[in-house]
User: What shape does this take?
Amino acid sequence: MTQPATAPVLFDRRLLALRQRRAAGAPETFLLERVAEDLGDRLAAVNRSFTAAADVWTPGAGHKPRLTDRMAQLVHLAAPDTADETLPLAPHSLDLALSALAFQFVNDLPGVLAQIRRALRPDGLLLAAMIGGDTLTELRQSFAAAEAECEGGVSPRVAPFADLRDIGGLLQRAGFALPVTDVDRVVVRYASAFGLMHDLRRMGAANSLVERRRTPLRRATLLRMAEIYSERFADADGRIRATFDIICISGWAPHESQQKPLKPGSATASLEAAVKRTPRE
Assistant: This one.
């Protein structure tokens, strides 16, 4: 009998939770501020109210007041500090699930999405934003080049991020109807790579990979990384660029009232006929 596949453990959830707790007292970061505003705008475009909502693992608490005016109840679920990513949600207990900047650190994202889908009532909504795509590609390349040059090898310094198409597929796999994904690319400029790394620590988003190198980073390697970053990714004024790709996802628990795609072969007019009717210039 074959055993069910288990998701690889990429992130040290205990270390991540510790860093996020330390960062909780810092002023709200620009990235969470931007994501909270965007989620609020998207939610405002949905013409309905929500009686039971859950915020799944969003770090900090600054975003919540801006989202609660459409909800009778909002429960905040704290991120786990163990490898157990089970959500304490009863089936069909929610009509809205929110999450901001948390899913990129989930070891078993298909499993978490499936749990949220089961917790949603028919026609319930999942609305979330996560880091993905080419986020921090400049930092990743600079660290890899510096370590290869100074230490003769490369260690994982920046977490792998999901692709937009992969996320859309995961929503469908979890059973969501009408899945939608899009990317907001944010390019932030800093005086140096050290300013970027300071912001990542303030977000509680420093390296928490299980396979991270446990020995302290050598000063020479760190300085060389900053040099390479400036050489490759600086603008004319000397400030460096940092890319953040924010993937926004939405999906609905299936309901009979929702639009459904036409069945293959059910069209009443052919594309060929439509083209022939189109007047030429």
Remarks:
- The two ends are 66 Å apart (CA to CA).
- The helical segments are 13-23, 30-44, 109-119, 137-151, 164-173, 193-202, 219-233, 271-277.
